[in-house]
Amino acid sequence: MFQTLAHEIQYPGKKFVFSVKSLQALYLFWSSFILIVALNCYSYETLMSDSAHSFQQSLIWAGQYWWSWALLSPLAILDSRKIVARQFAIMHLKNYMLHALLFSLAAILLSTIASVLFSTELSVHTFSKQFFNELYIGLVVYSAVVIAGTLLIMCAGESTSTHSESQQSELEQEKQYAKQLMVIKGNSKVLLDVHDICFISAAGNYLEINANEDNFLIRKTMKAMIQMLDPSLFIRIHRSTIVARNCIQSITPRSCGDHKVQLNCGTHFIISKSYRDVLKSLLVETRNA
């Protein structure tokens, strides 16, 4: 029920819209809450009062007391969504305080209209007492709904994020990477197995591929090439260099702060400071090896 409420809040453009499912979940929660209040009231009257008291009376009282706040609670939930989207700041606090006040006043107005329509006796003294009592309760209800809604949406967001990351990981695993490349050797084009590649470096409008102690050319950008290759086999260590992971022989720090990557084919490259994440990944691999 709570997951439905948190997930089903949609906001196309700048308009916030509740779906039918989210409203059903919200009012199911309020129905459960009113039922619990009625049970509590009935139990108290049964144990503490000498007069006869039915559960129906308790249920009617609880419904009459809480229905206006239940009806308006989607407005408070929408403020929860705004808080999550804006990463709550003190500068927005006055807006939410105003919303809380309007929330309480709207609930009081609904209750008053219902009392008039159903011919309930309502004196000025009774109304004044009810007004201030329900004003404070309305502020508390608004705050409770906003806090609960914010926590629900944040939890749902984390769950969705984890699910999305899992799906993305599965898609990457299913992605078909190149097993062979059509490369240029002299005036001919030949198929080259990617497992034979040691490193790839930029060479003008081409990429130069070193494989089996020989050099080949291919007309592609470095970005397009790294997307074609399996990341478990190759890693980009510089904006103009891709190396095969299994060809890395050693990684040595230098006095200037960068690192030298030595390949088993005899060539070495420098990992600049801007590729710190790549360096950390390679260092972890070399330690595990």
List the helices and strands and how they pair.
Elements: H1 2-7, E1 9-10, E2 17-18, H2 20-48, H3 55-86, H4 93-117, H5 124-174, E3 180-185, E4 188-193, E5 197-203, E6 206-211, E7 214-218, H6 222-228, E8 234-238, E9 241-244, E10 248-253, E11 259-263, E12 268-271, H7 276-288
Antiparallel strand pairs: 1-2, 3-4, 5-6, 5-9, 6-7, 8-9, 10-11, 11-12
What does this structure look like?
α3 packs antiparallel against α4 (93-117) and α4 crosses α5 (124-174). β3 (180-185) and β4 form a beta hairpin. This protein has seven helices and twelve strands. The longest helix is centred in the middle third of the chain and has 51 residues, at 124-174. The protein has two domains: 2-173, no CATH class; 180-288, LytTr DNA-binding domain (OB fold (Dihydrolipoamide Acetyltransferase, E2P)). 18% of the residues are buried. It is an alpha+beta fold and 289 residues long. The strands form four sheets. It has a five-stranded antiparallel beta sheet, with no helix packed on it. The model is unreliable at 1-16 (pLDDT under 50).
